[in-house]
Amino acid sequence: DAGITQSPRHKVTETGTPVTLRCHQTENHRYMYWYRQDPGHGLRLIHYSYGVKDTDKGEVSDGYSVSRSKTEDFLLTLESATSSQTSVYFCAISESGDTEAFFGQGTRLTVV
Amino acid sequence: KQEVTQIPAALSVPEGENLVLNCSFTDSAIYNLQWFRQDPGKGLTSLLLIQSSQREQTSGRLNASLDKSSGRSTLYIAASQPGDSATYLCAAGGAADMRFGAGTRLTVKP
To answer: Searching chain B, which residue's CA lies closest to the CA of residue A32?
Structure first.
């Protein structure tokens, strides 16, 4: 398995609080991604990074920010969590933007 | 906007049967097509990646084909086993932007 660790694996938080999810990789891949998976919508891209401090928005980026200060870590922050952000969040990595992608085990986030 | 569709949404077959899962996409300008497997409550496991210049890829009992001109990919599973039971997802890859289908939930009965 690709060396991808997501933390925490489960989190319950209250509406309006900030939340940060972490993705850590040991593969030295250049690209890192955050997706969310929801029933009826499938997997959708939130943000991605193509290098240290280089990030871009995905399909559903509103309400989320990201940071990448080191090759191995990609953080996803919900500035002020809302119930619509209750979801399963997946981190993925790839060597380049068009090569095979590998996924982490996911973080189940519940906003109450 | 790329739209990816997978048919059927669910499939139940007896053990040993050969089967085909279908994936269609609306924009043929893709970089690659990737097939994944997802077990309940788990992450995605990459099965096969087909680059846009390729027509098919094989791994063990799995064979995936790609026809960009018709916007279709198929995943062929030979001699299915109960351990193959999972949801299978296809993703059409743009530049750093994969678009996923909703998946086919496969059940292989012993």
So the answer is: B96
